[in-house]
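Incident log, structure service

09:12 report received: a user says their structure output differs between two submissions of the same chain.
09:20 pulled the input from the user's history:
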Amino acid sequence: MRQGMERLVLSIVFMVGCATSHHEGEHAAASVASAPPAPVVDEYRIQTGDELDIVLPLNPELSVRTFVRPDGKVSLELIDEITAEGLTTAELTDHLLNAYSTELRDPDISVNVVSMAARIYVDGHVEEPGEYVWTRQVTAMQAVALAGGLRDTAAGEHLLVVRRGPGGEQQLIEVDLENVEDGESRDIHLVPYDTVYVPSSRVADVNKWVDQYIRKNIPITPREVLPPDGGGGGGGTAGAGQVK
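09:34 re-ran on a clean worker, output below:
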C-alpha cells in the first residue's frame, strides 16, 4: 500500500513537470511536494466577512461590533469608511487612530477579530467531511479530528493537503502520519482555504480524488495519472458540510 502511494505521488510529480514544460503559459500548474512543514501563520490578516470588535474605551458610545463588508470596508461613527481587508488588527488600529485623531483628543482604540470568515475543508474518509472554521493554530491532523476522525475505510498512513498559491497554482502536500506519530516528521499548520483529504486504503481512490480536485489545473488527461489497471475505488467526498 505504502509503495503504491509513493509511486502515485512520484508519477504525479513527473507528469506535472512534463506537462507544465510543454504547456507553459496555458494553464496554472499544480505542484506536488512531500509535506514540508508549513510556517505558523503569526499575523492574521482581516478578510471580508470577518466580525470585528472595535472598542474606544474613552468614548464607549463610538465602540462597535461590525462585519467587514464585501468591499473590504467597515463603517464607523465620525470618520469616513475605512478599508480593513488585508490588514492585521495592529495595522487597522493604526489607521483608526490616525482617522480619529482629527475628531478626538488622544484617542484610544483596540481591534479584535471576534469571528473569522476563513474556512478550511476536510474531505475523503472522515466521519464528517465538510467546511470548518480556520484558526491560526489548526493543523492537518487537528482538522481531521474536527471532522470526527478517520473512518474504518481510511488508509491511516497519509493525509493530502491541497493549497492554492498566490498565483493560482496548486500544491499537493503529503503528510506521512506514521512518521508524525513516531516523531520523525511534523504535522503542518493549515492556511485559509486549504483542503485536507483522507484517502481510503485503495490507491485508486486517491487517483480519483486527484483527478476531481486537481485535473483542471494540470494540462494532462486522467489516463496519464491513473495506474495501468485504471483503478476504481470509492471514497467519501465533501458534500454540503456543516460549518463548525
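09:41 both user submissions now match this output. Likely a transient worker issue. Closing.
09:42 reviewer note: The first strand starts at residue 30 and ends at 33. The chain has two domains: 2-41+118-224, 51-115.
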